[in-house]
Amino acid sequence: MPALPSWITDPLWDQFRALLPERVDQHPLGCHRPRIGDRIVFDKLLQVLVFGCGYQRVADHTCSERTLRRRRDEWIAAGVADQLHRLAVAACDRLIGLELDRLAVDGCITKAPRGGEVAGPSPVDRGKGGSKRSLVVEGHGIPLGVVPAAANRRDDGLLAVTLDTLDAVGPLPERPTVHLDAGYDYQPCYQELARRGLAG
């Protein structure tokens, strides 16, 4: 079952394919198994994003879970994800119009029972494994940037790196307002906002 209809995925694939770097086969003998097509991997990764399921759920005879993870990491290392993020934000701005004079930053904790690169003990789940996502959104709630961290990291300590993700958005309006909750009510947060020309 396709994650999205072809009239959406085909144009997406055309734009995504243009971002992929040219691949040179470096195998000395050129006799290894044929590489799984990028379009197959792209469709599987779309399923993961749309359905919110794990890689093992969408893996089948056409593409394994390991291939999905390897290709995802390969594309991230090549800078494709960053380019795609910039294009998506620019498209949202053209179609909907981003409200960049009002921003909001907050963190949310999720479970991470199997650990992970940034997982840590969760302060809200009896010290079990968890991770935190520090997110910045524009006035309508459209996500502009996210930073993963361990669940036991404080929100105020992630403010600077979360605001750094706004570099991909481009220039902000004159002195935009950043809405924050009490977890950011500390002097270093006010100083960080003032340094960036933001109102808290």
Please identify the structural class as seen in this structure: alpha+beta
Our count of helices gives: 7
N-to-C SSE string, H for helix and E for strand: HHHHHEEEEHEH
**Which residue ranges are poorly predicted, with pLDDT under 50 across at least 5 consecutive positions?**
none
Sum this structure up briefly:
The chain is α+β, with helices and mostly antiparallel strands and 200 residues long.
Report on this model:
The chain is α+β, with helices and mostly antiparallel strands. The protein has 2 domains: 6-78, no CATH class; 98-195, no CATH class. Helices cover 38% and strands 16% of the residues. Strands 1, 2, 3, 4 and 5 form a 5-stranded mixed beta sheet that branches. Helix 2 (38-51) crosses helix 4. The protein is globular and about 60 Å long. The N and C termini lie far apart (46 Å). The mean pLDDT is 88.
Properties at a glance:
200 residues, alpha+beta, 2 domains, five-stranded mixed sheet, 7 helices, 5 strands
Question: How do the strands and helices of this protein lay out in sequence?
Answer:
Elements: H1 6-19, H2 38-51, H3 55-58, H4 65-77, H5 80-95, E1 102-111, E2 120-121, E3 129-138, E4 143-150, H6 159-164, E5 177-179, H7 187-195
Helix pairs in contact: 2-4
